[in-house]
């Protein structure tokens, strides 16, 4: 539904160049909620502003619903008719709501409809329908100053839906809200995603947001996407930074010459018997350093950090046993990509045969 390829944005100001996006390939499937995470300055807002061509990328392409937006002329307020038209089908929700204080709630929602050229009656009908959809039918005649933060954001969402978009972009739309209001707004986004088949691309720095509503996620660093995939894929990726943050398990090794292993299991799979089998089969003492269960992307996931006596090389066979049981096994400390980790991985694969 949304595809960017080689998306690059270089800002030039006062003789200085800032590469905000450095070749971003993003792929958001139709009907999914996709979260982009990353630290401040990573390029998240730039990415979302390039997706609807509020910013014109320096290089690369953006395709939304099969249409190459980068091929359309204009930018920002000087967008061509074709670009405006395409953009009206991409809703955008902002962190600070961006409502006009002099207009009623209804008139705020009507604004994009005015731009689209709908007549007064049609605008009114549509605006009330949208306000009903976001649970604010009774606030049509209120002014933004009379609303709570959560209500303002509902107005922002109603306004974003005015052009019957297929895609909704959201830049930190809940970060100005308290946790409970955040939950209700996320619930609304999820409902809209399901009811209207809306594809949602959202930016957040809150892992909870990803856990609650995202199907897929990407991590941005320094203008690049360093990890991406469905939440389930990420959780199943050894060494994934997003998975670790989505689902942290703590626990320090009790001493040197120990092997710390993170075991992830999905759904009903119980680790407990596997751990005791492991202990019996190989006659080793296993300590559980930490464990947690959580619901991620609507599915139960468990994580357990265990400690085996001896160094990694001595534990290749027991670790292979865990993998054979269908558990996802991540050896802590063996940073992916290093020679040691690669060698260890090869040994484990070998051991599992
Ligand atoms: N209009 C601009 N002119 C010059 N540099 C810019 C401009 N907009 C963004 N940048 C720079 O581009 C980089 C990425 O900024 P961006 O706003 O996309 O980050 P972000 O990930 O959204 O951060 P935050 O989490 O703080 O919102 C930063 O280094 C920023 O200073
Ligand atoms: Mg930002």
UniProtKB/TrEMBL annotation:
Keywords (A to Z) from UniProt: Amino-acid transport, ATP-binding, Cell membrane, Membrane, Nucleotide-binding, Translocase, Transport
Record keyword Transport present: yes
Domain ABC transporter: 2-247
Cited InterPro entries: AAA+_ATPase, ABC_transporter-like_ATP-bd, ABC_transporter-like_CS, ACT-like_dom_sf, MetN_ABC, MetN_ABC_transporter-like, NIL_domain, P-loop_NTPase
GO molecular function ontology, one term from the record: ATP binding
Protein name: ATP-binding cassette domain-containing protein
Organism: Streptomyces orinoci
């Amino acid at each position: 539904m949304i595809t960017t390829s080689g998306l690059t944005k270089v800002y030039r100001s006062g003789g200085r160049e800032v590469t905000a996006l450095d070749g971003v390939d993003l792929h958001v499937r139709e009907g999914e909620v996709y979260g982009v995470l990353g630290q401040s300055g990573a390029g998240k807002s730039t990415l979302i502003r390039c997706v609807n061509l509020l910013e014109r990328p320096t290089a690369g392409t953006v395709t939304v619903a099969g249409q190459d937006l980068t091929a359309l002329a204009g930018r920002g307020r000087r967008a061509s008719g074709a670009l405006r038209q395409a953009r009206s089908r991409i809703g955008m929700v902002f962190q600070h709501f961006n409502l006009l204080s002099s207009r009623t709630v209804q008139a705020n929602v009507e604004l994009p409809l005015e731009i689209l050229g709908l007549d007064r009656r049609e605008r009114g009908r549509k605006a009330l329908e949208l306000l009903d959809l976001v649970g604010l039918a009774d606030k049509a005649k209120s002014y933004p100053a009379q609303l709570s933060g959560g209500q303002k954001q509902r107005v922002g969402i109603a306004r974003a839906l005015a052009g019957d978009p297929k895609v909704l972009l959201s830049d930190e739309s809940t970060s100005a809200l308290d946790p409970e209001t955040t939950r209700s707004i996320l619930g609304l986004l999820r409902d809209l995603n399901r009811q209207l088949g809306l594809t949602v691309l959202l930016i957040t720095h809150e892992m909870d947001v990803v856990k609650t509503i995202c199907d897929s996620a990407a991590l941005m660093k320094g203008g690049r996407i360093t990890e991406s995939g469905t939440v389930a894929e990420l959780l199943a990726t050894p060494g994934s930074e997003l998975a670790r943050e989505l689902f942290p398990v703590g626990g320090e090794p009790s001493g040197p010459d120990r092997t710390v292993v993170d075991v992830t299991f999905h759904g009903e799979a119980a680790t407990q018997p596997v751990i005791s089998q492991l202990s019996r089969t190989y006659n080793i003492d296993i300590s559980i350093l930490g464990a947690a269960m959580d619901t991620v992307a609507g599915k139960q996931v468990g994580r357990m950090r265990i400690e085996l006596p001896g160094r990694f090389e001595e534990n290749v066979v027991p670790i292979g046993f865990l993998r054979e049981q269908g558990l996802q096994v991540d050896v802590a400390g063996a940073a992916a990509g290093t020679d040691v980790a690669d060698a260890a991985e090869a040994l484990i694969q070998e051991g599992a045969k």
